[in-house]
Known about the structure:
Blueprint: E1 7-9, H1 13-22, H2 27-34, H3 41-50, H4 57-67, H5 72-81, H6 100-111, H7 113-119, H8 121-134, H9 141-148, E2 154-159, E3 169-173, E4 176-181, H10 199-221, H11 223-229, H12 238-243, H13 247-267, H14 270-284, H15 289-304, H16 311-314, H17 318-329
Parallel strand pairs: 1-2, 2-4
Antiparallel strand pairs: 3-4
Helix pairs in contact: 1-5, 4-6, 10-13, 13-14, 13-15, 15-17
Amino acid sequence: xxxxxxxxIQLSDQIRLIxxxxxxxxxxxxxQERQPHGTHAHARxxxxxxxxxKAHPAVQGMQHILDQGAPxxxxxxxxxxxxxxxxxxxxxxxxxxxxxxxxxRDFYSQSxxxxxxxxEEFQWQAALAQAERxxxxxxxxxxxxxxxxxxxxxxxxxxxxTYPSESEVTLLxxxxxxxxxxxxxxxxxxxxxxFDEDPAYIRRVALSQYCKILMIDYLRHHAEKVAQASETPLxxxxxxxxxxxxxxxxxxxxxxxxxxxxxxxxxxxKSEANAYVLMERKAAGKTTLPGMIxxxxxxxxxxxxxxxKEFGDFLPLLPKQLKxxxxxxxx
Length: 331
């Protein structure tokens, strides 16, 4: 039986423009300081091509936004609110420089970026084709249904071969959950992998990003259940607690790790799931992850048997079950 794919793969000129401007701020250098890595050939070509435009007011405006600590999601949300190619926007956010959309329009015109994109179109089309192959017949919504009910939002994946080059940016926009993702980083200074070189990786990344947006929204709309559940602290390591200080952050990140592992085990292989869990335990301090996987598997069995109608019914019970499961898997 053919699986109905529910991930839309697309490119966006507005996103490409913001990524290009980002390339000549101090963001790329700071990203390298955080995590040295090789970048895509098109990212390097973009930085070199746009170097003469570093003093443009649109670039300086973005640098100011970054210096104020604005999240990357805000920049890309702004991008998607602009029309193309006119770059008009109905309402400017209060954090944006005055007339920034007009400055971006002038930057696009003066920089010759359209010419660069035309010359490098094969790079973008290759990334698009790779992503389409990686997500062929991938369906996430059946996996998500026991936790969120029928997911009404469209799931969108945007391959990004410029910047950010080391991290995903995911946002909810116009009833779409949009994951803007670079390809997988390689070792050292080597260029990143093609999007379809390791399909299990990019599928897991996308799933985790969609789950993050959905779970944050779910917890916000089930405050009473969260209040009940959070009376019991989660059994997490000091390293993990330092990184995620609130109960909601701890739970969301453990949930994302567990559902990703369950997805890999069911849709890819047990060995792929085990490798992912081992990596998360060592690199992210998720020592409780095996216990969370066990608890969510138990919930899924009970949900399928009709014991629970929705995840909110189970949420207040989860912390205590997780404490027990964490002790058992730790023996």
